Automatic annotation (TrEMBL):
Enzyme class: oxidoreductase
One BP annotation, GO: L-serine biosynthetic process
EC number: 1.1.1.399, 1.1.1.95
Protein's UniProt keywords contain Membrane: no
Reactions catalysed, as given in the entry: (R)-2-hydroxyglutarate + NAD(+) = 2-oxoglutarate + NADH + H(+); (2R)-3-phosphoglycerate + NAD(+) = 3-phosphooxypyruvate + NADH + H(+)
Family assignment from sequence similarity: Belongs to the D-isomer specific 2-hydroxyacid dehydrogenase family.
Domain ACT: 346-415
Keywords: NAD, Oxidoreductase
Pathway the protein acts in: Amino-acid biosynthesis; L-serine biosynthesis; L-serine from 3-phospho-D-glycerate: step 1/3
Protein name according to UniProt: D-3-phosphoglycerate dehydrogenase
InterPro entries assigned: ACT-like_dom_sf, ACT_dom, AHAS_small-like_ACT, D-isomer_2-hydroxyacid_DH, D-isomer_2_OHA_DH_cat_dom, D-isomer_DH_CS, D-isomer_DH_CS1, D-isomer_DH_NAD-bd
Length: 415
């Protein structure tokens, strides 16, 4: 597929759009990277809907989002100037990664900068559920004095079952043992157990043996509604469910039923199948006003520490991609990073992954009597990614001719 040439020349000003209240540390980091470029940064506090995003993207080269903004195939199709997308969060399910790969747009995230924040929230919620803290607090605010011990427990000695034993699951497992819990986990991949955490053979076993079940899987076709009526029925009577992964992982009507009929003793939910675009939108869920149900507005990763670190981390990888084509850490692209070589001229080319591309590119370079200083090509999925440093300043012409090759997806002169 041939892309229209980017409107803005990336040697000079880079246009950046940051949505969803990304931390100011991102702006500081972009500006610190400078290197002769100006970064023109536009910030917006909420997410944009698909049509709004399409309307906002002409001229934008770097887009920063969090978990809410959906970058669909249609958005990508219409974003001719877009070089890269930075998810200033862990999850990347909101971006069509395959479409972005096919269009030559690398997507980056911050894989563990908010891990600790989520794990700490979960520990606080496990204890809060065990002590019915949300209800007691609300009662006292309402002037009701209900000093009870019935159905309030210590967490020491109780079993925590973790579904998805990745970065967050493992960190939670460590913290849970520190407060005396026994920890079981279930994952589709083999994972090294932390401390005395134990792997169980199946999700069904984990559900049957846990007092608390905490979900830490990504949103995938397999995890969609992975906890429905049948799974809730397998949980122990009086157990608690916690979900801070993605809202689509739990069947909400089934959870409401399990809470109302007393099978579950409580739940803590941070994520929902439909979430508001911004803090000014109203929010409604069937889970509201049920006893011992803690509801939070997707704040698992919302701490000063996490947001500050994420702002720096993702802005740094986006800057490195804009400035020298580095894709290390990208979630949908071949991983290529070449240090700049003084006095050379760098071209980036994303092409269809088919035989003969390097031969054609090198013929273009040879026809212009140019010499290649460094060249690196890696492939992933449908695409190949080539970084090439030329000794002569013929990059504009080389780029024009490479763009005319049938294999070309997009070509950019970086310097
Ligand atoms: N509430 C929040 O604010 C918040 C913050 C950060 C992350 N998250 C969510 O938490 C998710 C997990 O984060 P992480 O950093 O631990 O990710 P991770 O990739 O490190 O770990 C996810 C684990 O889930 C496992 N997994 C995948 N599919 C599975 C399945 N069907 N059954 C069992 N295990 C499965 C993977 O093998 C992996 O070990 C993210 O994808 C994101 O959606 C939410
Ligand atoms: O994927 C994540 O890191 C979390 O869901 C946090 O998303 P947020 O940045 O939109 O709060």
């Amino acid at each position: 597929m041939t892309m229209p040439a980017p409107a803005a020349q990336t040697r000079d000003t880079i246009q950046i759009l940051l949505l969803e209240n990304i931390h100011p540390s991102a702006t500081e980091t972009f500006n610190a990277f400078g290197e002769g470029r100006t970064y023109a940064i536009t910030r917006k506090s909420g997410a944009l809907k698909e049509d709004e995003l399409i309307a906002a993207l002409p001229g934008v080269q770097l887009l920063g989002i969090r978990s809410k903004t959906r970058v669909t195939a249609r958005v990508l199709e219409n974003a001719h100037d877009l070089l890269s997308v930075g998810c200033f969060c862990i999850g990347t399910n909101q971006v069509d990664l395959v479409a972005a790969n096919a269009r030559g747009v690398p997507v980056f995230n911050a894989p563990f900068s908010n891990t600790r924040s989520v794990a700490e929230l979960m520990i606080s919620e496990i204890i809060a559920l065990a002590r019915q803290l949300g209800d007691r607090s609300r009662e006292v605010h309402d002037g009701v004095w209900k000093k009870v011990a019935a159905q309030c427990y210590e967490v020491r000695g109780k079993v925590l079952g973790i579904v998805g034993y990745g970065h967050i699951g493992r960190q939670l497992g460590v913290l849970a043992e520190a407060v005396g819990m026994r920890v079981f986990y279930h994952d589709i991949a083999a994972r090294l157990p932390m401390g005395n955490n134990r792997s169980v053979p199946s999700l069904a076993t984990l559900l049957a043996e846990s007092d608390f079940v905490s979900l830490h899987v990504p949103e995938t076709p397999e995890t969609r509604k992975m906890i429905g009526a049948a799974e809730l029925a397998k949980m122990r009577k009086g157990a608690y469910l916690l979900n801070a992964s993605r809202g689509t992982v739990v069947d909400i009507p089934a959870l409401v039923a399990a809470l109302k009929d007393g099978h579950l003793a409580g739940a803590a939910i941070d994520v929902y199948p439909e979430e508001p675009e911004s803090n000014t939108d109203k929010f409604k869920t069937e889970l509201q006003n049920l006893p011992n149900v803690l509801l939070t507005p997707h704040i698992g990763g919302s701490t000063e520490e996490a947001q500050e670190a994420i702002g720096r981390e993702v802005a740094a990888v986006l800057s490195k991609f804009a400035a020298m084509g580095a894709t290390t850490g990208s979630v949908n692209f071949p991983q290529v990073e070449l240090p700049p070589v003084k006095g050379t001229h760098r071209i980036l080319n994303v092409h269809r992954n088919e035989p003969g591309v390097l031969r054609d590119v090198n013929r273009v370079v040879a026809d212009l009597n140019a010499n290649i200083d460094t060249q690196f090509l890696a492939t992933e999925g449908a695409i190949g990614y080539l970084i090439m440093d030329l000794e002569q300043d013929v990059s504009a012409e080389v780029s024009r001719r490479i763009q005319a090759l049938p294999s070309n997806i997009r070509t950019r002169v970086v310097y």
